[in-house]
Amino acid sequence: MTSISEILAHNKKFVENKDYEAYLTNKYPDKKMAILTCMDTRLVELLPKAMNLRNGDAKIIKNAGAILTQPFGSAMRSILVAIYEMGAQEVFVVGHHGCGMTKLDTEGMVGKIRERGIDETVLTTLENSGIRMERFLRGFESVEEGVLHSIKIIRNHPLLPPDIPVHGFIMDPTTGALELLVDGFKEIERDQESY
């Protein structure tokens, strides 16, 4: 049985048994939060449980490393939509120890791209178009650096309301323990005091 047939068989029973009823909610986050986190498989169920989140509580945006690579990319757009259209009032950036984006081997990944059959002319064309693999596939030196980098992009975004706190956490992917790296409320207070 393929993964597609397994999923479809399960889904049919899920719908027939009305198992979905346990997850009914609307599109607005009840806890008025948007979370940018990593796509790591260990966090799929652990992160919501460790943060006491249920279905419908938060807008959760996932990508590799919880990294914003540019201020006008899809992850930042999702954060802004969560704020302006869905009523989110806080943003959380949650990285985790043991992240695969820590010291990502860009050259090794490009080698794997070649091994999987991507023609060298494609890579050359991308490079000639200004897409640098070492930048596009860049990770970070430490999870702290990654979280702080994303927070900086969010906090300095020209479309972010100044009253939206941006918090930073690092999670233990085994225990779910959270370490507060940045308290967004204190950052807002500091900004207001400096005026």
TrEMBL record:
Family: Belongs to the beta-class carbonic anhydrase family.
InterPro entries given in the database record: Carbonic_anhydrase, Carbonic_anhydrase_sf
CDD domains (UniProt xref): beta_CA_cladeD (cd03379)
The name this protein goes by in its record: carbonic anhydrase
UniProt KW Signal keyword: no
Cofactor list: Zn(2+)
Gene Ontology molecular functions: carbonate dehydratase activity
